[in-house]
Design brief:
alpha+beta; 199 residues; four-stranded antiparallel sheet; 50% helix; 9 helices; Jelly Rolls
């Protein structure tokens, strides 16, 4: 059983990287969550559903993806070591149907808060500051990726990926990484071989 002490430790470590929050407030925050497990390939959100929960990933990896003409395209990854808060952001904020899917790529353990609790909590300091900083980080991450897709070569995008999301490499199938980079799995293989030869 994953107890409250472990939850608080993980959440507090990440939260305090963003902005300092009193220990008891983090304890209260963690105490209002329920612990849930997701099996590999299980979804926390599907396209068309309204997102009504916020997840914190203690163990595991999730993939955000969209679908078009029977194919899926990886939008981003959420994992315990890098960006553990996981939600369908636009759907969560606007309470409209989600355009994305969120899938567990391995057996995962999360804390889950409902939408009404989170929105009420984030109206108050210091959680308001935390929410604003998280939103800023998400916007910067989104803009950097959009610029990279427009400006950088496939190899340059791969190098950025390895630098910023190196922990994903060991957990995610190559075809998901290729999809995230906007290239085919074959192109990704060629890039990796080329880099390995030069090294």
């Amino acid at each position: 059983m994953y107890g409250l002490v472990e939850q608080v430790k993980n959440i507090e470590t990440y939260v305090n990287r963003i902005t300092p929050i009193d220990h008891q407030q983090v304890v209260d925050f963690a105490g209002n969550a329920r612990v849930k497990t997701f099996k590999k390939n299980e979804h926390s959100l599907r396209e068309g559903e309204q997102c009504a929960q916020l997840l914190f990933v203690h163990q595991g990896t999730f993939r955000y993806y969209i679908t078009k003409n029977g194919k899926d395209f990886t939008k981003d990854f959420c994992l315990d070591s890098t960006n553990p808060f996981c939600t369908g952001f636009t759907s969560f904020v606007t309470q409209t149907a989600s355009l994305i899917n969120i899938e567990a790529l391995e057996d995962s353990l999360v804390s889950v808060w409902n939408e009404s609790y989170v929105k009420e909590l984030f109206k108050n300091l210091p959680w308001l500051v935390f929410a604003r900083k998280i939103a800023e980080l998400l916007f910067v991450r989104k803009e950097k990726r959009e610029i990279s897709l427009l400006r950088d070569s496939a190899e340059e995008r791969y190098k950025i990926f390895v630098k910023e999301l190196k922990d994903v490499m060991q957990k995610v199938p190559q075809y998901h990484i290729a999809s995230y980079l906007g290239i085919t799995p074959e192109s990704l293989s060629r890039i990796r071989m080329s880099i390995a030869k030069r090294s």
